[in-house]
Amino acid sequence: MEAHNSTQLETLVHQQLRECSPVFLALADPIRQDIIMMLTKHDSLNVAQIVERSPMSRSAISHHLKILRQAKLVTSTKIATEIYYSLDIEGPVQLLKDFLATTDRIIEMKTDGAE
Length: 115
Description:
Elements: H1 2-27, H2 30-41, E1 45-46, H3 47-52, H4 58-70, E2 74-79, E3 82-87, H5 90-114
Antiparallel strand pairs: 1-3, 2-3
Helix pairs in contact: 1-4, 1-5
């Protein structure tokens, strides 16, 4: 029975790891980390405002914002001709929490089984 539960948890954690991969990818880059930190200090910023606060070009910032959007760490809203970006991390944070909780359960099961 316990081996069955362990296999189910390992399958679940593998699926969760795949779901977290875009978040890990997005968070791995220092420029994207800087953009996230900028957005923690402001409700929203457009590309020009982010470029003003960064050494990167407009096209580079746009590329990084695309990756952050794909990871669902930021959302975009068009106002007139400008697109504003806002931090929206609740979903990705929950994915990471779920992954860590499942990993903890696997570790606990293996530790309990070793005794």
